[in-house]
């Protein structure tokens, strides 16, 4: 089709010459939808529905502007309302722009709608954050799937095998920032490809669907003219298709309603880069967002920010990951706040209120159990002002104009004040008083932070781990210096140390296996001393080792070595090296060379080294870091894994050298990805099996990236869900690093809620670098309110005096004749103690609200709770298979009735009821983990 302004006269002449009503009516209907008739002519009923959801809400202005420019009439479908095929509507064509999450119900409904003749246009990484089953179904419906993002804008051009109806259109081809679409083998055509190596597909089309490989409607991805040309052409393709497509008819059984009103949505904002960079375990999104119910005008809460794909830079991938879940509130900014952001701000205040109340309840219940009275004056003086960063301390002065009253107040006054602020936020925003809204939000946050209890111990038995980094060990300089560090950590309640033992190819100890001890260590054995120091303080010492990362350019600078020195092991064994597709040992934009995991000699060396560590030294555990390949982006021409051994083995399996394949060869590329992933998987299994034969009580953990599973496998070949399900590892430690609690929760929540980890315990990682003390405490409280058994702090070098003081008060050593159990070592004892603490909280709440609940209901609840307590205590005292069975059955029964028993509290404090449910889930997971530990011990002893 050609543009209206150029061909209006020709069209008019053709219509006059035809003089047939049938042809005339068809021309008007078709051309009106293509936007090449005057607006007055475009009066026909819409045949297009556009899906509006959480993930494209902040792009909606661009999307709707383009639709308006085209002149196409359309209905709006709110994704949140889709529960069946009928909900996709009765319009002929459905447009799904940039929606990354569909539920199984919605995907099945879409399949049902398309089976009745519906035609689908989709853009962006559709469904990429959905479950595996949904992704598979969408791949079938779309004729392919989003493979990889491109790093920069690339030229879209016609495919070599040109499809006339696409290739002959003007305006379809130009520069776009998008991704490679991997087409299915059958029934799929690629009308446009990327002008890059192997010309991978940019668009795929089938009889029923067309998939555009970029985020349509966003200026950062493509020009409006190109977007409009593609939508026009694709609509024309389906609306004028020959029989038997039954063109122009509606979809039988689809909803006839058609909402055309869309509230203005915010325009896209530029990405915000990381503010800092640091090394971390394995440090070289889009965690799920809460559900939402948009108004009928199709507005939606703030969507999950989309990750910005960049060319290689010095920014660490772990920092890039944090940027995808940012929630920033700039003081005094008068930038507009949309309805979506307002909902997010309100929700964060409500969550923070819940964490404050939960922490205080733990303290009050414990004090009541010990017969200690905490006065109102004592409570009001318990706040975190001494721990607040300078910017927070100054805020009350800066924001005095808000007239919110003094910040030092009782907990009840503070909570009441914050609830008023939360309630009034929408009004301020509606009045466009954005600066005051932000100011009040920050005051509310500071006020709540000051209500956290910091003068009494509130922690229950949990994993409290710290990564003790090489730099801190080197600076300690001796056993005496290291002892000071262990004293501080022990006083702060830390019970598990991840001690950096192998770094950049060097060991921290004098090894008979490794080539060289770290040159910065002179005249002593830090690992031997660390084991002694930890055990003297009832702490566990786990050797933290770099697995497949063999060197480090930054470490070379410290040692005054050539930046490209690959480390002592690869220097001695160059055949063990891994390479990228350009022949580089160190990937472009990164700093570390890697071993080839497929090389049998590499695997033998590492196994021998780890065996030396766990047999020569009395370590309690081993943590595998860099248990992966380096980061890659195949669609941008950055791939890795072409070591000598890997290439030979893959060629023997498939007959193809992997350097000669690309992502556009879907079947071969998938085999290559699986091959590399299996090298990591099999090595983890081998480490687990061989080391446990030497040390049956060894705790094996892994430091991993919290990327979505498919993305992670494609980018770093790290499939840690498999290791967890198989029981190869005891602890999964995802590096969920974030500068505020909201980001931390969005990163950690998908993995905490995952059902894919078997009996393995999950321990979220918290990075202390640049994190205010008060923020660290808030993240710890979130961990304690979620169904996990502890946390890991990165790193000892950032464990400052303020943290030391705060941790010593709230989780420090108990003055007792018996040691506090550590969950991964004594799961049954931990479960019993944690449950007793739960009972104390219930007792306190019931006593406080005794007038609101009958004595009979309290008695019934206490009786059922006591049955579970007895079962858990018996299991902890004398574990056996029969007692474990009784405890699990009692817990399951109690959990099934818990919400009924807590109906009163559910109405008044749903957050706290959810916290209690989470803690019961933690106990359930501890029992499952303990059961597996017992089984493995029996297997290793031949029992």
Question: How would you summarize the topology of this molecule?
Answer:
Layout: H1 4-18, H2 21-33, E1 48-52, H3 60-70, E2 74-78, E3 93-97, H4 104-115, E4 119-123, H5 132-142, E5 144-149, E6 154-158, H6 164-167, E7 175-176, E8 179-183, E9 189-194, E10 201-205, E11 209-212, H7 224-239, H8 317-323, H9 339-370, H10 376-381, H11 390-398, H12 411-430, H13 434-449, E12 463-468, H14 470-476, H15 479-491, E13 496-503, E14 506-507, H16 526-536, E15 540-546, H17 553-558, H18 568-572, H19 600-616, E16 621-625, H20 644-654, H21 666-694, E17 699-704, H22 709-716, H23 720-726, E18 731-734, H24 741-752, E19 761-762, E20 765-767, H25 773-785, E21 790-794, H26 801-811, H27 827-848, H28 855-877, H29 881-901, H30 903-908, H31 910-940
Parallel strand pairs: 1-2, 1-3, 3-4, 4-11, 12-13, 12-21, 13-15, 15-16, 16-17, 17-18, 18-19, 20-21
Antiparallel strand pairs: 5-8, 6-7, 6-9, 9-10, 10-11, 13-14
Helix pairs in contact: 3-7, 4-5, 9-12, 9-13, 9-25, 9-27, 12-13, 15-16, 19-21, 27-28, 27-31, 28-29, 29-31
């Amino acid at each position: 089709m050609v543009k209206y302004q150029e061909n209006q006269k020709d069209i008019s002449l053709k219509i006059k010459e035809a003089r047939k009503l049938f042809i005339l009516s068809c021309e008007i209907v078709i051309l009106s939808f293509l936007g090449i008739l005057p607006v007055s002519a475009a009066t026909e009923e819409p045949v297009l529905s556009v899906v509006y959801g959480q993930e494209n809400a902040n792009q909606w202005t661009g999307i709707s502007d383009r639709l308006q420019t085209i002149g196409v009439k359309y209905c709006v479908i709110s994704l949140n309302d889709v529960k069946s095929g009928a909900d996709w509507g009765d319009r002929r064509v459905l447009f799904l722009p940039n929606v990354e999450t569909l539920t199984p119900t919605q995907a099945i409904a879409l399949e049902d709608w398309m089976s009745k003749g519906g035609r689908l246009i989709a853009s962006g990484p559709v469904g990429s954050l959905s479950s595996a089953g949904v992704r598979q179904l969408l791949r079938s419906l779309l004729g392919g799937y989003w493979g990889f993002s491109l790093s920069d804008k690339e030229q879209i051009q016609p495919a070599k095998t040109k499809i006339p109806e696409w290739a002959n259109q003007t305006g379809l081809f130009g520069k776009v920032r998008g991704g490679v679409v991997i087409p299915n083998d059958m029934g799929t055509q690629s009308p446009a490809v990327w002008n890059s190596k192997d010309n991978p597909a940019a668009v795929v089309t089938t009889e029923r669907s067309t998939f555009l490989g970029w985020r349509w409607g966003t200026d950062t991805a493509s020009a409006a003219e190109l977007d409009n040309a593609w939508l026009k052409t694709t609509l024309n393709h389906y609306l004028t298709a020959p029989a038997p497509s039954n063109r122009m008819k509606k979809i039988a059984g689809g909803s006839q309603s058609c909402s055309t009103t869309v509230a203005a949505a915010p325009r896209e904002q530029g990405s915000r880069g990381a503010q800092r960079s640091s090394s971390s375990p394995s440090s070289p999104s889009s965690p799920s967002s809460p559900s939402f119910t948009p108004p009928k005008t199709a507005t939606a809460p703030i969507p999950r920010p989309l990750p910005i794909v960049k060319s290689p830079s010095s920014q660490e991938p772990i920092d890039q990951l944090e940027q995808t879940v940012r929630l920033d509130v700039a003081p005094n900014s008068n930038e507009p706040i949309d309805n979506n952001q307002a909902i997010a701000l309100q929700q964060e205040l409500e969550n923070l209120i819940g964490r404050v109340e939960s922490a205080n309840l733990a303290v009050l219940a414990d004090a009541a159990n010990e017969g200690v009275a905490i006065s109102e004056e004592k409570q009001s003086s318990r706040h975190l002002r001494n721990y607040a960063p300078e910017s927070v301390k100054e805020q009350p002065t800066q924001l005095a104009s808000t007239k919110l009253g003094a910040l030092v107040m009782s907990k009840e006054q503070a909570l009441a004040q914050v609830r008023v602020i939360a309630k009034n936020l929408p009004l301020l925003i509606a009045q466009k008083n954005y600066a005051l809204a932000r100011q009040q939000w920050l005051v509310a946050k500071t006020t709540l932070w000051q209500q956290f209890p910091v003068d009494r111990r509130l922690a229950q038995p949990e994993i409290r781990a710290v990564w003790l980094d090489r730099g801190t060990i080197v600076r300690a300089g001796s056993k005496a210096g290291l002892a000071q560090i262990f004293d501080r950590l022990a006083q702060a309640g830390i019970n598990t140390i991840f001690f950096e033992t192998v770094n950049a190819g060097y060991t921290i100890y004098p090894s008979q296996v490794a080539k060289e001890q770290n040159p910065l260590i002179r005249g002593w054995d830090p690992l031997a001393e660390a084991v002694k120091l930890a055990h003297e303080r009832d702490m566990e010492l786990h050797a933290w080792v770099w697995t497949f990362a063999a060197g480090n350019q930054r470490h070379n600078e410290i040692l005054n070595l050539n930046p490209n020195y690959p480390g002592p092991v690869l220097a001695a064994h160059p055949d063990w090296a891994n390479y990228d597709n350009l022949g580089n040992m160190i990937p472009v934009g990164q700093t570390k060379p890697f071993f080839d995991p497929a090389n049998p000699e590499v695997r033998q060396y590492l196994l021998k080294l780890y065996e030396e560590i766990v047999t020569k030294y009395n370590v309690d555990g081993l943590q595998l870091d860099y248990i992966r390949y380096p980061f890659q982006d195949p669609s941008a021409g950055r791939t890795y894994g072409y070591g000598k051994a890997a290439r030979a083995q893959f060629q023997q399996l498939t007959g193809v050298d992997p350097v000669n394949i690309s992502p556009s060869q879907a079947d071969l590329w998938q085999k290559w990805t699986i091959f590399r992933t299996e090298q990591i998987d099999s090595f983890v299994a081998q480490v687990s099996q061989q080391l446990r034969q030497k040390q049956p009580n060894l705790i094996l953990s892994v430091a991993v990236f919290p990327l979505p599973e498919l993305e992670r496998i494609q980018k770093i070949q790290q499939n840690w869900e498999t290791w967890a399900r198989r029981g190869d590892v005891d602890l999964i430690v995802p590096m969920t690093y974030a500068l505020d609690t909201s980001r931390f929760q969005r990163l950690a929540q998908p993995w905490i809620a995952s059902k894919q980890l078997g009996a393995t315990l999950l321990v979220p990682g918290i990075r202390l670098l640049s994190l205010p003390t008060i923020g660290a405490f808030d993240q710890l409280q979130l961990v304690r309110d979620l169904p996990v058994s502890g946390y890991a702090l990165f790193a000892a070098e950032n464990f400052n005096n303020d943290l030391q003081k705060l941790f010593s008060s709230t989780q420090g050593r108990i003055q007792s004749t018996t040691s506090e159990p550590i969950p991964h070592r004594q799961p049954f004892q931990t479960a019993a103690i944690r449950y007793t603490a739960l009972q104390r909280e219930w007792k306190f709440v019931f006593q406080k609200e005794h007038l609101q609940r009958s004595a009979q209901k309290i008695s019934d609840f206490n009786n059922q709770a006591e049955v579970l307590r007895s079962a858990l205590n018996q299991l902890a005292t004398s574990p056996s298979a029969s007692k474990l069975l009784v405890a699990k059955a009692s817990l399951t029964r109690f959990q099934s009735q818990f919400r009924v028993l807590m109906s009163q509290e559910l109405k008044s404090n749903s957050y706290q009821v959810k916290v209690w449910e989470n803690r019961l889930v933690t106990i359930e997971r501890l029992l499952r983990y303990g059961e597996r530990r017992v089984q493995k011990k029996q297997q290793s002893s031949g029992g």
